[in-house]
Here is the input.
Amino acid sequence: MQFDIQNTESSALYKLLTGTVIPRPIGWISTIDNNGINNLAPFSFFNVVSEDPPHVMFSTVRTGNKNKDTLNNILDNKQFVVNLVTEEVVEQMNTTSQSVESDIDEFELANVTPIDSTYIKPKRVKESLVHFECEMVYHYFIENHQNGGACIIIGKIITMHIDDSILMENHRINLDTYKPVARLAGSNYSKLGEIFSIKRG
Here is the structure.
């Protein structure tokens, strides 16, 4: 079946995209506003886009032409932390997906522990095993939208914090102890499942 973009409702496009582009890593983004209030929210339109130098990307939807707190905070101070999601914190991550007032601290809402970053103001999630401290280098508002579109954020990684428990020799990551969680469609998530290898030619 073919779906022409101009003739397909946005709700259908969302279901088709999030149901086929899977699994997606989750960027659990922490920011801080100009009043010092912490913000924490998950984004599955997220990935690493470069290692030379290291950069990440995520996008945040603008339902009803309204910015999320995450976007407003990053546009104000150009800083954010990517906390990566594992099986142990998936429930807390889900709690922070709620839409709440901007004066609500999602660290408190989800009962996770804020800890200081080394170079930037936004806090890190102590319970997360991986944190990337980032500075925004570029943002782009998607054009020709119907309901608000989205804004893409590209951030330069300033420093990485990786828990010793998941590190192996030669900078490899122990997936048995890391246990990352990925986003599917609707209310579904996935664990790693079976892992197989194919050597490059």
In short: The chain has a mean pLDDT of 95. The two ends are 34 Å apart (CA to CA).
